[in-house]
Structures are given as structure tokens and as C-alpha cells.
Amino acid sequence: MAEADINRETELKLAAQPEDFDRLRAAPAIADRAAGPAATRTLESTYYDTEDRRLAARKVTLRVRKTGDGFVQTVKSAPDEDGIGRGEWECAVTSATPDLTLIADEAAIDLLGPLGESELQPVFTSIVERTTQDVTLGEGDGAARIEIAFDRGSIMLPDGRSRELCEVELELKEGTPAALYELAQDLAKAAPLRLEMRSKAERGHALANGEADKAVKAEKLLLDPETTVEGAVARIVRACLAHMIANEAVTLAGEDPEGVHQMRVALRRLRSATALFRPFIPTVQYLWLVGEIKWLAGSLGPARDWDVFGEELLAPVRDAFHRADGHGRSAVEDLDTLAAAAEAKRLRAYEGVREAIRSDRYTAFLLGVGGWVEKRGWRDQPVSEESVRLFQPVIGLADHLLNKRHRKAKRAGHGFAHLPVAQRHQLRIALKKLRYAVEFFRSLYDDKPVRRYIQQLAAFQDALGHLNDVATATRLLHELHDDGSRSAPGEPRAAGIVIGWHARGVADTEAALVALWHDFIDTKHFWSKPDPAV
């Protein structure tokens, strides 16, 4: 049984409801695996930072926790790429005030950087009632020991503002990280749980800074030439999951359309990655992944479609008529009526989004994919010429995969000037897959030509995207009253105005679209020509 590194913390957080704690503690996943009695204590932790929040900017944590009659000072690094591991250094101190002179480990000292105690100030405090229980999974050398902590309490600021917290922490003491996901999946069968990727420190700083949940784009992925194919698969899948989870909160709020958009981008990237590495993934696993991705994307899709219709298609037309100084007043009223009907449809679509994100199936999907990565589930297949390549450097495969995606996009756009809308949509999908592949592998190549290539792809993709949005708008307007409701007077006229307005715009941009296609064809590759034998 491997023992966890003394200077590392590996844990999985699960958001829960307090009324479910008793049910979770009594679940077979804990009751049948308990090693010793449970213990309950109150933890009071004060988190420190500089006035300009230098530590928070790097996701570094400095806290002092009161435990019984003593105090423990802890330094934590930013999370690892897997999202569940991080560096952790602890030492006893004499009071709730940090004492940096007692930090002996060079890694922790380097992490804090040039920092004087006089610069530190308390930012927030968490007071938590914690009940812990150790459990053992498995037997013999493959067994894992996990400490389960049931935390209920609050994060409080000096000015009185607070945020409640209720979560279950699974901390690996011995064994492999895959055991955390196995236990989490078992617990999720006993009560509703949600994966929580934000630390208490991150939530406390967000409260202190008055930050609302914001939509975030995918972070740049870093691979190096020594990364193996399976290492690349693991990093890419983790990055897609992290991107999606980071946009959950803003999507649930439903006020910023970018949230659901970024969740869908993360899902498309994940599906593109599974297709890219399809030869290395066993069929049953691949079909499960694709099926769950399709389900979730389908749950998020209507909300995104109505967001785009309202903001990018209907709004410009309404604004133009509203600026017409009274001309076309009846059309203005019709467009306002259509906007109200579309907004009602959008709000209903977001109800579906919330239902999906809060569902047991969503949690099972996240935990299933996370566990699959940690266990390297793709190894569960017969040894073959393809499976052996999982352990070879990905740089030897990247050229081949990029060239393959590029050729597919060229074939999809052949005869572009005469392609109908449906085939142009297929070209757009091929371009997206190509762009995601480029973004996955870009750190393996010189950045300047990669950046130029991505910019060229993005310009063409965006132009085709507007064409697709106009086609989608026609479908949406036909679905506006598919619930059996009646359209208001003037709605059909307003719908015709919107479609006609943008159809004219599409016609006016045809020459520019054809030019962008030729620019794409003429764009130089930044990758080397692959070996035909690959």
C-alpha cells in the first residue's frame, strides 16, 4: 500500500446537503469499510494574504488553524493538473498569527516568494464542524486508506458577510488517487452529491473580493516532447473537465450567456479529444463517453441556441427599428412581442440546463471520467500495435493527427463556393475539430506559426458560425410554440423580418466567405509532414 507524500495533499471535494450527512455516513460505502470510530471537532481557520492579494493570484494558500489548544500553520500550492493534488506544508505555531520563520522546507519558502509578515493581513475565517472517518478500500498491497471529512460551517469576513459551506472531503492517506473516485461514486449512490473543484480558500477570496461567478475560457494546455500518448490523453481530458466545471456556477445562475457557451465548448473539446484518440480507447469505454457527452450537450444546447437568437440575431434588428425615430412603429411592437416570447423560451431552456447539471447522472459522468483517467482505463484492452503506442512520445503522433484533421477539413470544403448550407455546416464542424486538435498540441511546436494558423481558422470558423446561427434561427422560430401555446399577433411578421434581415446579410458576405476559404487552403502548415508509415 503506497503511502501519500508527507508534503502533498490529494483530496476530492463533494458538495452535499446537510440533511444527507446521516444517510451518507450510514451508507455501505462507509459503514462496511470503516477503520476505527468517527471523531468530531470544530476547526477555526484564518486565511492570510497581502493587501494586493499576491498569494491568491497564484492560488497559494497561507492559513493558521486552531485545533484544540494549539495552532497549525499551513502553506498550500496551487492544484496540480489533475485538480485533486497539491503541495502542503504544515508546522505548529504559538498563535493564530503566521510565523514565516518556522517554515523550513525550501519548496514552501519559494512558493510564498519575497514576503514579510508585516505585509500579511487576515482576509477571512472559516469555522467548520468536522466529523472524520477513516475507511479502507481493497485488500493487501492494492488497498487504499482514505479519510472522509464531513464539513459543515461557514466562511466569514471581518465585515460580517458570510457564505455557508457543506461538503464531504475525501483525502487519500495511502493508495492511488483512483480510489478517491471509486469511493465518491459509491457515495453518490446514497445521496445527491456534486463535484466541488474550488477550495475553501478560493471561495473565501471570491467572497472577500465581491466577485460574482464568471465564465472562463479553456486554459492553454502544456505538453512537452517527452509526454507519452496516454499522458497526453490524461492531460487533455482533465483540462476539458476542468474547463467545464469552472463554468458550472455561472451557467446555473443563467445571467451570463457565456457560461453555457463555455460549458458546451468544453464538451465539444472533450468529444473531439475522444475521437482524436479513438484507436487507443476500448469500444465500450468510447461509446459510454460519447453517449454521456451527447446527453449533456443536448441538455445545454437549447439554452445556448436561444441565447444566440436573442443577443446576436434579434437584438440588432430590434435596435435598428427602435432607432428609426418612429418609422415602422408597428414592426417595433411586433419585434418586442417576439422578444418576449423568445425570452420565455430561453428561461424554460435554462430550467433544463439546471436540471441536467444538478442531476445524479451529471455527477456520475464527472466522477466516471475522472476515475477512468486516474485508473488509465484505456489500458483495459489486449496488447496490440495500437495499444503499445500509448507509451510512446505523443510528438510522434501529433503530426499525423493534425495532418489527418487538416485533410478532412479540406475534403469537407471542396467546391466551397457552391456548397449548400448543410454541407458548409459540416465543414464548420471539421474546422472545429481541427482547431481543437491544434490547441491540444500547440505547445509541442513553435508558437508564432501556430498562433497564425489558429487566427486563420478562427476567422473562417466565426464567419461560418454566423451562417449556421441564421439557419438555426429559422428552426427555433418554428419551435417557438411547439408546447401548444398560441403565437401573439405580429409574431409571424416579426419572425419574417428577422430572418429576412440576416438572410440579406449572409448574401452580402458571400464573397468574403469564399475568400476566407481560399485563405485557409493557402495557409502554411506549422507541423512536419508525417511519416507515411505512421
TrEMBL record:
List the Pfam families hit by this protein, alphabetically. CHAD, CYTH
CYTH domain segment(s) = 7-211
Q: Which residues form the CHAD domain?
A: 226-533
Matching entries from InterPro entries are given as: CHAD_dom (IPR007899), CHAD_dom_sf (IPR038186), CYTH-like_dom_sf (IPR033469), CYTH_domain (IPR023577), YgiF (IPR039013)
Question: What PROSITE patterns is this protein classified in?
Answer: CHAD, CYTH
Q: Can you tell which superkingdom this protein's organism belongs to?
A: Bacteria
SUPFAM superfamilies reported for this sequence: CYTH-like phosphatases (SSF55154)
Task: Recall the GO molecular function terms of this protein's record.
Answer: inorganic triphosphate phosphatase activity; metal ion binding
> What is the protein's name according to its record?
Metal-chelation protein CHAD
Species for this entry: Azospirillum thiophilum
What are the top taxonomic ranks of the organism? Bacteria, Pseudomonadati, Pseudomonadota, Alphaproteobacteria, Rhodospirillales
